[in-house]
Amino acid sequence: FFFFKQKTAYEISACLVGSEMCIRDSINSYIVQKIIEKGDKNRMLIMTADLTNLMQEELDPKDPINLHRKQYGNSKACLQEIKSPVFYLDNSVIKLLTYEELTKRKNFMTSDAWELYDKAYKARTV
Questions:
Q1: What is the per-residue pLDDT across 90-103, written as a single tens digit (0 to 9) for each?
Q2: 66 vs 75: CA distance, rounded Å
Q3: Residue 125 has pLDDT above 80, yes or no
Q4: Of 14, 78, 101, 113, which is the most buried if we count CB atoms within 10 A?
Q5: Quick one: average pLDDT of 25-47?
Q6: Those residues with Cβ within 8 angstroms of residue 30's Cβ, 6 or more apart along the chain or in another chain
């Protein structure tokens, strides 16, 4: 008999390769930026419907982020599938992990997105 440890969402997402990793990191960065620019900065969240509207308004229909979302039919299904290490879904709300957790996982987003988040986080705690 062989016993296999069930992988956590973080372990599964950490083993993505190539284009899957690029898409995941692009989506992570885009969500962080949209929460800071358009979402609730105090609670670090955004509604999935608001995020979908922003994607449709701001991104080219053939942008890889939009194409990935369309592949799943809606943003919520897409976000559940990528198992992000920087945010989680609470019903229809996308919430960033705590500052301490994101500090350990900032390599899952662009440096620009991390700097934007870091600056916004520090500004709200002053």
A1: 999 999 999 999 99
A2: 9
A3: no
A4: 113
A5: 90
A6: 55, 65, 113
Residue type, 71: Q
Assess contact for 13 and 82: CB atoms under 8 A.
Answer: yes
d(CA 34, CA 89) in angstroms, rounded, equals: 15
Cα torsion at 83, 125, 92, 27 (round to 10°)? -40
Quote the CA–CA distance of 125 and 27 in Å, as a whole number: 26
Q: What whole-number distance in Å separates Cα of residue 62 and Cα of residue 82? A: 19
Q: How many helices (H) and strands (E) does the chain have?
A: 7, 3
Q: Which residue in this structure is represented by tokens 């709300």?
A: 93
3-class DSSP state of 47:
strand
Report yes or no: 79 and 103 within 8 Å, Cβ to Cβ. Answer: no
